[in-house]
Structure formats: structure tokens, C-alpha cells
Amino acid sequence: MQKTPEELMRLAIDMAKEAYCIGEVPVGCVIADAEGNVIKRGNYPLITISF
């Protein structure tokens, strides 16, 4: 499903909020192609994997 740049940013922000809520570093990332199709999403589980 194609998404606008604003929708892609909202996905990344929502992922960051989810990470923050579980005590993680609040970072979210969404990679999309030129048409706005999400290719990959992820976060940065630094705290969880460090211990």
C-alpha cells in the first residue's frame, strides 16, 4: 500500500513511541521505495541487547 511522506514519518514516530514505552532508545525507521511502499521498518533496541 502506497503511503505519503507524512504517513511514513508517522509510522517511524509511532515505532519510536513504542520503543520509549518499553524503556528503549526512542528511534524508529521506515524505508520506502519511490512510490511510498514500505520496504522495511525497524527500531534500535540498544538497551535490550546490551544487557
Give the topology.
Elements: H1 5-21, E1 28-32, E2 38-43, H2 46-50
Antiparallel strand pairs: 1-2
Short description:
Helices cover 43% and strands 22% of the residues.
Helix content: 40-55%
Mean pLDDT, as a whole number? 89
The Cα radius of gyration reads 12 Å
User: Distance N terminus to C terminus?
Assistant: 37 Å
Work out the strand percent: 15-25%
Low-confidence residue ranges: none
Enumerate how many helices there are, as a single number: 2
List SSEs in N-to-C order: HEEH
Name the shape in a single word.
elongated
Strand count, sense and barrel status of the largest sheet are: 2 strands, antiparallel
Number of E strands: 2
| Spatial sequence of strands, sheet with the most strands | 1-2
- The class by helix and strand makeup works out as alpha+beta
